[in-house]
Amino acid sequence: MRLFMQTPSKTVSEIAFQQCISPSCRATFGVDEVLTACTKCGGLLDVSYDWNAAAIPASISEFESKWSNRHDPLCYSGVWRFRELLPFAPPEKIVTVGEGQTLLQQTNSVGAFVGLDAGNLFLQYEGMNPSGSFKDNGMTAAFTHAHMIGASQAACASTGNTSASLAMYCAVSRLMKAVIFIGSGKIAYGKLSQALEYGALTVAINGDFDDAMLRVKEVCSKLGIYLVNSINPFRLEGQKTIMLRVLESLQWQVPDWIIVPGGNLGNSSSFGKAFMELKHLGLIDRVPRLAIINAAGANTLSQLYEESGVRWNDGEIDNAPVEKYYDAMQAAGRKASTIASAIEINRPVNFEKCLRALDVCDGVVREISDLEILDAKAQVGAGGIGCEPASAASVAGAKLLREQGIIAPSDRVVCILTGHQLKDPTATVAYHTTDQEEFNEVLGSRGVQRASYANRAVSVPNDLNEIVRAIQLYS
Ligand SMILES: *Cc1c(COP(=O)(O)O)cnc(C)c1O
Ligand SMILES: [Zn+2]
Hints:
Distance between the termini: 60 Å
CATH class of the domain at 103-130 and 235-442: Alpha Beta
Shape: globular
Low-confidence stretches: none
Bound molecules: pyridoxal-5'-phosphate, zinc ion
Strand order of the largest sheet: 4-5-13-10-11-12
Structural class: alpha/beta
Radius of gyration: 22 Å
Number of helices: 17
CATH architecture of the domain at 103-130 and 235-442: 3-Layer(aba) Sandwich
CATH topology of the domain at 103-130 and 235-442: Rossmann fold
């Protein structure tokens, strides 16, 4: 019997290191260094491993043996029970709040909306994480690294969920103080309420997410604060486990498609890395295809990948179209704008890594309108547990790719529902009350006119007969 759960004889610093993703650079750095970019070429960093020194199971299904050990927090966590595949942290430094207890739900009603054969659509509910979004998968990993190196303050720029997650880890562990940067007026109330209640120092700057992201980097390097945005490679290590849990729920069968909304592109990048490593380690024999869905009002990836044809190209990315695109955006003063605030990002920090993921997974990118997002969200809610607007981009994207014949009705498709239904009640209520004032305020200005699946509240006088009549009429 292989005892892969035993601590390997090597220490984490002998197994794990940081490495520039650019094949022409490949500079390496220690696992205990705090970096947000390669110091040689400015490229993005990976956490890499000497797999020969690590303890890897002979078969991926061996991870199921952790279930019998659920009193151990590191086996209970849906992230750390896969820690052999992210072996950068000594167990005693791992900070976990029990993240990753999520659920893969097969749903035929949403499947029919998308246009798939019965039994083929699966929704991965990452909103079930402790702070209500997939961000906890990454935050436990980045926070653990911050703890490893002795940080006392951690910061992020956020459209809301990263800050909610960081603030939660700070509040629960008492190990660090959270400093969060948000664009003024750009955050859903569910998310803002979390940051405030968990006690984070919340800095609202006059600008949008892209502005906040630039500032937080400057502030962190000036004040020596640990940065937990997804530019932090340790975050992405934790997010790899979303794919491991999807595979586990499918009894280790690889689906045909993984579909995920794209914002800063950390999640999609981590999925690509997960599959690259699983394939390399011989734990899976094929990788799924990856579809990344942008909102039409925040469509940098879709424009550069699908319109300009920018590719990973073995790390030799043609930067000319990318620079041209950003120059034009700057000149026009164009800002990201979508109801799906979690993906309202025009300058995705993980762009290059994401190109690598698209390469590994034979990926496609699509963009969809706010109305398509909200219609898909209504269908997700009507067919199950629900999600926030950005999450529904995955389902709307699946529908579009079905219509285009890129996904076949017989394909097995997993859509990642990145955030909880209650994160952004304003958008949901506005959608379902199309005849009321909020709709115009919230959605009308975005050109959304028709809510196909609105479930309107019925107004009735406070009178028994009228109420009975209304119920008979509408039910
Ligand atoms: C952060 C977030 C996204 C975007 O993920 P990226 O990794 O930035 O691409 C999508 N949906 C929700 C709910 C999020 O919180
Ligand atoms: Zn480099």
